[in-house]
Amino acid sequence: MNFKLGCECTLLLARVQWCFISFSDFKCPTHLKKPYYIKTFLMTQLLIRCLSICALLLPPLFLSACADVHQSSADHHLSENQELLSLAPADGEDPDSDISTELEALRRAGNWSRANNATLNQNLLLDTNFSDFPIVLNNQVQAYLDLFQNQQKKSFSIWLSRSGKYLPMMQKELKEAGLPEDLAYLAMIESGYNQKAYSKANASGLWQFIPGTGSQYNLKMNKYIDERREAMKSTKAAVRFLSNLYDEFGDWHLAVAAYNAGPGKISKGLERYNVTDFWSLAENEYLAMETKRYVPKLIASIIIAKNPEKYGFKDVQMEEPYSYDTLEVGPGLTFDAAALISNCDRKTIDLLNPELCSNKTPLNQSTHQIKIPAGSKDIASKNLSRLHQVVSTDYKTHTISKGETLAQVCSRYDISTTTLLKVNNLRSPKLASGQRLRIPFQNVRYQLLAEGSTRAVASAGLQDNPVLHKVQKGESVVQIARKYRVSIDQIASWNNLPAGNKVNAGQKLSLFLDSINTTSQPPQENPVVASTPKDQTEKTPVIVATQTKKMPTRDNVSKVAVNTIQEVDTDKSRPNWYEVQDGDTLYTIAKEFKLSPLQIKQLNNLQSNVILPGKRLKIKDV
Q1: What is the mean pLDDT of each run of 10 residues along the chain (622 residues)?
Q2: pTM attached to this predicted model
Q3: For residues 391 and 362, is the Cβ–Cβ distance under 8 A?
Q4: Strand-pair partners of 388
Q5: How far is CA 261 from CA 278, 286, 514, in A?
Q6: Is the peptide bond before 552 cis (omega within 30 degrees of 0)?
């Protein structure tokens, strides 16, 4: 159609060209041979000749452009079901990192027939029955064999190495479902076996599920978890999806194409062109190049992966098969805490749990099976009862830039204007360039208590005797956290609170408070494991992990005390000092420590009732 239009336009331009040339030969009449008319006539002649030259050049250029458009229309054709495309992830070794090279190779490969006289290397010819997936050897497959052995050899080596981690698990699931085991290589061309792979089409995980298809196959997706990135669950979903596609089309090439473009797209194409196989459909300008190249790319991947040394991949080190233990824990257990109890580093926990979006177990479910290194379940189970979380408030410094406002600072650090003003003892929101502000943030540290200790731990289901708090009408978790000087996350974890930490009047909350003082320490950039002196008792805690997060936020302006103490009435157990938190007044502090406001003023030589967050108040004579 484009070629026909080009021809018609060429004829029109030729006619215009003839008119220009004919008019340029028109000579100036004798009665117009005056200086003014002669000058005008010459300029007109010059313009006409310029237009004539353009008219001579435009037809061949236009024809060339039309031919190029006609030749490359299939290469750049977009799918009618664009939202169903399982595009590759945006990482350094993704399967679509060199798309232009692939398109050029496929363009040179010629037509898309099943058998198009592929000039295969005779030394590489093989028995097509070596795979349980139907193998076709044609120019398109050969194009990918060449690409993988040359321009994309480094990337393909990485995919091969990663395949050792996932193939045993994937092939086991496929075999149990009665599907070709070599469909496991579909994840190779989808994601390069990268669990965290993510595409511009919002496809994610090893099998690159888009949100709609992921939901259809019961994969959870919310702010806490994305099961498309969970290897086992996403593989089971992909197996069900592929099985359904094969039931619909009865042909694995069409089923795989439908996995990429959507079953509706493939069904309409088969009906429109009255064809029954993928290669006949691919010969038409209907499928997007993303889908057309999907099948030969998979076949070439299978051919090389089944015999890598034969194709030049001799030094590939396969990763160890995917293995892990699981441990049932409560909500909000962070990767730092999980690494501590499992005696491994945080990166290991992160690699095992890529589906957890906020680096901790979901807050919207009572329990979660977190993955830990294989063989570490026993020690992790024992350490879980010794895990203790210490929360404190610390401060960082922010220097005001020229033109920067208080609102911008609050937005950057996600804190309220009131909090920032109080912390910095400011009466006006006006800021000066170079001014330094204190920015509060929450510092969370984890420690393993000595064996046999009965002190509080930051998880639900403990055997210690908790403090039972009955929720009063109108009382929130924020207020309760302030009263007992613990974090909101701790209360949520101890009581398996639902998403949003909603509590009801009359509800009893278990609070596992420390039985002795634990003075928090400032955060360390590189925390060192503290050793226990021989002359100390076994109850000495050992701090081994720290993490920090912004505190407080606009939605949760809660305070966290520096000291964690058991609420008892004896003066002996009362701390010496208390750090004022946002929202504190002399009255609330006095009531909490069974003192009067006057006593606190006298102990601290206060001249007024005004106190600011961050100020340390003496609670008893020392």
Answers
A1: 45 49 48 54 67 56 41 33 36 61 84 68 55 92 94 95 96 97 97 93 95 96 96 98 97 96 96 95 92 94 94 93 94 92 96 95 90 96 85 83 92 83 87 92 78 47 54 87 78 72 82 44 31 33 46 37 32 70 72 81 79 79 62
A2: 0.61
A3: no
A4: 447
A5: 12, 11, 58
A6: yes
